Amino acid sequence: MRILNASHRFRVSEESRQDSAGDWDIELLVHIAVNLMNAPNIAGNGETPVGKVEMPTLPERRVRVGFILTAIHAGGLESFTLDLARRLPKENFEALVFNLTSEQTSEDRFAQSGIRVFSFRAFNRPRLGALSRNFWAMVRLARVLHEERVDIVHTCDFFPAVMGRVASLLAGVPVRLHTLHSDYDWFPCWAHLVNRALARCTDAITAVSDAVMASSLRLDGIHPDKYRMIHNGVDADVFAPDPSARNRMREWLGIPRDARVILSVGAYSRRKGHRITMDAAIPLLREDPRLHLVILGQQLHRDDDTQHLLDMARTAGVFSQVHMPGPREEIATYLAGCDVYCMSSYVEGLSLAALEAQMCGCLCVFSDLPSFREIVRDSDDGLLFPVGDAPALRTCLEHLLHLDPIVASAKRELVRTRAVERFSLENMVARYVEIYRQALAQS
């Protein structure tokens, strides 16, 4: 395999792509630092920005897009990847998924869509012992990218962004795209420096909201021409009002059919603010035995808040009214069957769960974050409360729980209509296909 001069955008010739991968050795890894230092600042050094390139004709061979993930769980990043991967035009694109840590609870969802998954044994922990393991996982990832002739590497989140983009340089992948899904202001300074360095060899950086893009511009210091804003999209056929969902969800939870449900969806992490939701809900649960709080989410290796939340419910005497069943594939049924949907996050990009709730016509309450302001334009879209303010959240929940049924029904219909217009999956996929085409034209 040959790594070419940086002016050739690190591409490997077609002959070398077809060569045996057996000549990989440690010498190749020396090129990483050189390539990063000499990489052209694409769309930020006076060249024509990606967004102004004419749409090219795609090659006869299908373009292979490699999505790099830390793990395959039932989370927002994985749902975003799955929705985009299986909706790419099959006549022009083939999606592959690279699972860095081999952790997988939802790999079947990809397999059922005919998407091949390659797993590695990297270790997403900031420990010295992980360096060697991750180094060789990155080398193996580069080998597979090369052997599979991947044309575009698309990364999400910090760990895949580093591993995937560096490996793609080694493999000679022509195009790199990175998507920002959150406001990463809790990252240490060195992480923002890494982001800035990797941006030099990245063709485009997409952000899921204006707030996320503004945060990255402020923290990472990357040229503005590098960015594109693409709102997340939701499948309006899957996430839709369903009159039968109410009874099905209550049967799954083992609660009466006339029970009222406050629902929240998000990993059991302190950043998701579930403690605020619990603080706000406890007095309401005490007042109304028919009211239940359901929190769907993934347990985490770090920053897991599951036990603390359960202890709060037990201490308050409402343990039987609080349900934390973990992640669920039937999230659309839970959303369509709840009475009020709530998110108390301290940090969000543009939550897929929030958009899915709106698509299902939920009455929604969100913490007053910049990203949530983009989806709540007035009280018909939902209510906002000050971040971390449990009494204010309690007031919002009480208001929505006691709405006149006719008013509530009208609000549900309107929020669904607006969500379909603004956050359709088809629009999101079309925007990414356009960026893929434009980036390939420049490569």
Task: Describe the SSE topology.
Layout: H1 14-18, H2 31-38, E1 63-69, H3 76-87, E2 93-99, H4 107-112, E3 116-119, H5 130-147, E4 152-156, H6 158-171, E5 175-180, H7 189-199, E6 204-207, H8 210-220, E7 227-229, H9 245-253, E8 260-265, H10 274-287, E9 291-296, H11 306-316, E10 322-323, H12 331-337, E11 340-343, H13 352-359, E12 364-367, H14 370-373, E13 383-385, H15 390-401, H16 405-422, H17 425-442
Parallel strand pairs: 1-2, 1-4, 2-3, 4-5, 5-6, 6-7, 8-9, 8-11, 9-10, 11-12, 12-13
Give a structural overview.
The chain has helices spanning about 15-20, 30-40, 75-85, 105-110, 130-145, 160-170, 190-200, 210-220, 245-255, 275-285, 305-315, 330-335, 350-360, 370-375, 390-400, 405-420, 425-440; strands at about 65-70, 95-100, 115-120, 150-155, 175-180, 205, 225-230, 260-265, 290-295, 320-325, 340-345, 365, 385. Strands 3-2-1-4-5-6-7 form a seven-stranded parallel β-sheet, sandwiched between helices. It has a six-stranded parallel β-sheet with strand order 10-9-8-11-12-13, sandwiched between helices. The chain is built from 17 helices and 13 strands. About 40% of the residues lie in helices and about 15% in strands. The two termini are about 20 Å apart. The longest helix has 18 residues, at about 130-145. It folds into two domains: about 5-235 and about 425-440, Rossmann fold, CATH 3.40.50.2000; about 245-425, Glycogen Phosphorylase B (Rossmann fold, 3-Layer(aba) Sandwich).
